[in-house]
Design goal:
single chain; six-stranded antiparallel β-sheet; two-stranded antiparallel ribbon
Length: about 220
């Protein structure tokens, strides 16, 4: 298949998804399914990179793909997890070795779909008392808690953990196995970013985006 024809398929990938009986983990192992998965991953990845709120972006994704009746993103706070902050993290946050930092690990969920897991180190001294209290006493997503500060994100690392199509696929597309299930790993890609407000970094996040972002049915 030539390059031009391959990219025509890419442009039509999401539309072609409607011909499949099911999405997500039930996709068949075919070239079209792999192309669709690639297009969807790149679409969400680009949306996250262009956004100042991963929470809002995931909520739009959930609503746009009809993943649940209520598309509101909820955070499940994992209270028994600790992850020390590194010296490099402190440098990115522009804080000294003894500045207090609070760690949170959350799962961001849309209904029963866990779309991402995030490690978050934030500087409480740079937040308002109300925001700090909300983060300490509730499961509120960090992005929603700090929304009044009009934060901006600066992504400094993107790691793609699954490539549905191998390098050079446009010259030699993979064989179809329509009777087999496409094997999708639990985590698709990772973002690391610093969140700023008032011209200062207020937190660093390490976000892993799961295969549940592909777990939706069409025609509903």
């Amino acid at each position: 298949m030539g390059r031009g024809r391959a990219w025509v398929f890419a442009m039509l990938g999401v539309a072609a998804l409607a011909t499949q009986a099911a999405a997500g983990p039930n996709w068949p192992d075919t070239f079209v399914s792999r192309l669709e998965a690639l297009a969807l991953m790149e679409t969400l990845n680009a949306s996250l990179l262009a956004s100042n709120s991963a929470t809002d972006t995931l909520q739009d994704w959930c609503a746009g793909h009809h993943m649940t009746a209520d598309a509101t993103i909820h955070a499940h706070l994992l209270r028994d997890v600790q992850k020390p902050i590194s010296a490099a993290d402190r440098q990115r946050l522009e804080i000294g070795a003894h500045e207090p930092v609070i760690y949170r690990r959350v799962e961001l969920a849309c209904g029963d779909h866990i779309l991402s897991r995030a490690d978050n180190w934030y500087v409480p001294a740079r937040l308002t008392p109300a925001i700090d209290r909300a983060l300490e006493t509730s499961d509120i997503p960090f992005g929603r808690a700090v929304k009044s500060l009009r934060p901006r994100r600066q992504t400094f690392a993107v790691l793609i953990l699954w490539r549905p199509l191998a390098e050079g696929w446009e010259m030699a597309p993979p064989a179809d196995h329509p009777d087999s299930k496409l094997v999708v790993p639990p985590v698709l890609f990772e973002h690391r970013a610093v969140v700023y407000a008032y011209g200062k970094p207020i937190s660093e996040v390490d976000e892993s985006y799961t295969s549940d972002i592909l777990n939706f049915r069409t025609g509903q």
